[in-house]
Amino acid sequence: MERAALDALLKRIESTETGAGNARVKQITNRIVRDLFYTIEDLDVQPAEFWHALNWLAGAGASGELGLLAAGLGFEHLLDLRMDEAEAKAGIEGGTPRTIEGPLYVAGAPESVAFARLDDGKEEGELLFMQGRVLTKDGKPVANALVEVWHANKLGNYSYFDKTQSDFNLRRGIRTDAEGRYQFRSIVPVGYSVPPGGSTEQLLSRLGRHGSRPAHIHFFVSAQGFRKLTTQINIEGDPLLWEDFAFATRDGLVPSVKRIDDAAEQKKLGVDQSFASIDFDFVLHEEQAGVPIAEIERRRALA
Question: Could you tell me the pLDDT band of residue 92, with boundaries at 50, 70 and 90?
């Protein structure tokens, strides 16, 4: 079809919008439809290809993989970069880098003060202690900040979604003490891949891409008067560290991992075996008017 004919068809479709509706929804929907019409024409998309894509998208929704696709196609990373840009324009720079949330957070994890053990004692894997402080950009401690943490087990699975795990296994909320300190005990997570044979893997394989992530630990860090931080740290040395299919690895989010074999250090933490140790401080920005909110509204699991 000629572009003029396509534009006439689009104009006809838009002319049916006679109700008040929602101006923003109209604007976004009409732009998406226009771009898809142009794509179908420019790339000569055939009916069988169109319906195959639509059926695939329906399957992705039914299997709960749309969140994986948002990460794997770079949309979630794009949203982070746009938020970085908006903050920079408002003079908000530095601090702990944000990165993607991913689709596997579960609200309602138990909270404790200063310290938490994440695993239920049934998990195999290398013992891990991670600790640090929540600070302002001026280096002052933020007391009573909430550090929410979640990660996969050594099989790459997350509790709640993996029904073989106990409730809130490897998930906790930790309130910082008066000096802004937090610490948790867990196991060193491993990387994992998208569900085999699922919608995400089907698409990525056709794009010539893998669907694997390096080992990482997710965090929400929030405090009264500060912008909420959504981030994750990656485990140093993972072979896929800079080849994350979700584009989440960022400078400043790959802390050193120390292996502690000293018996005196082990005794201080009440263990009698070597362990991995990660030190990491979170630096928050004060809330500021005129900047997009950092608390993102999206559907999340609630146990």
Answer: very high
Cβ atoms of 223 and 180 within 8 Å: the answer is no
CA dist 214 and 236 (Å) reads 9
- Distance from chain centroid for Cα 254: 15
pLDDT tens digits along 99-137: 999 999 999 999 999 999 999 999 989 999 999 999 999
Quick one: which of 260, 243, 252 has its CA closest to 280? 252
Q: How confident is the model at residue 299 (pLDDT cuts 50, 70, 90)?
A: very high
Instruction: Report the distance separating Cα 85 and Cα 79, nearest Å.
Output: 10
Q: For 238, which DSSP code?
A: -
Question: Is the model's pLDDT at 67 over the cut of 90?
Answer: yes
- As a whole number of angstroms, the distance between CA 279 and CA 114 comes to 14
For residue 303, pLDDT beyond 90: no
Instruction: Check residue 153 and report its DSSP letter.
Output: -
Instruction: Give the angle 156-160-163 at the CA atoms, nearest 5°.
Output: 80
CB 166 within 8 A of CB 159: yes
DSSP secondary-structure letter at 99?
-
Phi, psi angle pair for 202, to nearest 5°: -60, -45
* Chain CA centroid to CA 112, Å: 23
pTM over 0.90: yes
Six-digit token string for 258: 């120390």
Compute the distance between CA of residue 148 and CA of residue 218 in angstroms, rounded to an integer.
Answer: 8
> Residue written as tokens 């362990």?
275
